[in-house]
C-alpha cells in the first residue's frame, strides 16, 4: 500500500485538499494529513480540517511514497516560507519520491528548489517562478516525479493522476469510473 503525506496550513483550498485526500483513500492509499499550524486547521473558506499530525512530529519520511501540497493563496505562502516544508520536499525529492502540488503551491516547490523543467499552476503564480517552463495547455503536468496542476477545477483530475502514479492504470481506471469521470 502506498503512503502519502498531504501538508496543509491555514488558508488551504478546501476543494483541492478534500479531493486529494478522498480520492487517494478511495484508491486504498494510506494518507497522512499533516499541518504546520494547529491540528484543527481552517481553510480559505472557513472549513476546518482536523489534521492527523503536526508536520514537526513526523521525523521519518522513509515510509512515504509521495508528498502533496494543496493550494490556496495563504496556504501557499505559509508552505513556501516554512523551512520545515522546504526540508521535507527536498528530502522526498532526494529520495526519488513523488512531489506534487496544485494551484498556487507549485510556488512552494519552486521555493524549495524541487521543481523540474515543466510545470503548471494557478494563473498568475507562474510570474513568481522563473526557474522552469510554465504551461497553461495542460491541467496536470507530470515531469518525472514532480506533478503539478492548475486549481480547484482540476482537483479531481490531479488526484486521479496521483492514484495512477502510485497505484497504476487499473486502479486509476476503477476509481475514475466509480466517480463517473468521463471528461479526461
UniProtKB/TrEMBL annotation:
Protein name as it appears in the record: DJ-1/PfpI family protein
Domain DJ-1/PfpI: 3-164
Organism, scientific name: Arcobacter arenosus
A GO cellular-component term linked to this record: cytoplasm
Domain of life where this protein originates: Bacteria
Amino acid at each position: 500500500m502506498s503512503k502519502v503525506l498531504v501538508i496543509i496550513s491555514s488558508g488551504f483550498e478546501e476543494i483541492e485538499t478534500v479531493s486529494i485526500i478522498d480520492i487517494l483513500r478511495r484508491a486504498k492509499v494510506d494518507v497522512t494529513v499533516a499541518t504546520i499550524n494547529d491540528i484543527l486547521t481552517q481553510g480559505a473558506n472557513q472549513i476546518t480540517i482536523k489534521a492527523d499530525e503536526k508536520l514537526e512530529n513526523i521525523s521519518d519520511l522513509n515510509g512515504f511514497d509521495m508528498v502533496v501540497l494543496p493550494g490556496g493563496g495563504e496556504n501557499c505562502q505559509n508552505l513556501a516560507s516554512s523551512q520545515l516544508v522546504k526540508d521535507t520536499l527536498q528530502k522526498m525529492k532526494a529520495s526519488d519520491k513523488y512531489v506534487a502540488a496544485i494551484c498556487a503551491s507549485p510556488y512552494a516547490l519552486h521555493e524549495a528548489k524541487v521543481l523540474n523543467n515543466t510545470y503548471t499552476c494557478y494563473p498568475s503564480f507562474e510570474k513568481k517562478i522563473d526557474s522552469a517552463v510554465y504551461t497553461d495547455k495542460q491541467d496536470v503536468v507530470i515531469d518525472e516525479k514532480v506533478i503539478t496542476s492548475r486549481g480547484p477545477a482540476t482537483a479531481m483530475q490531479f488526484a486521479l493522476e496521483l492514484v495512477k502514479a502510485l497505484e497504476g492504470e487499473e486502479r486509476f481506471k476503477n476509481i475514475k469510473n466509480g466517480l463517473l469521470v468521463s471528461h479526461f
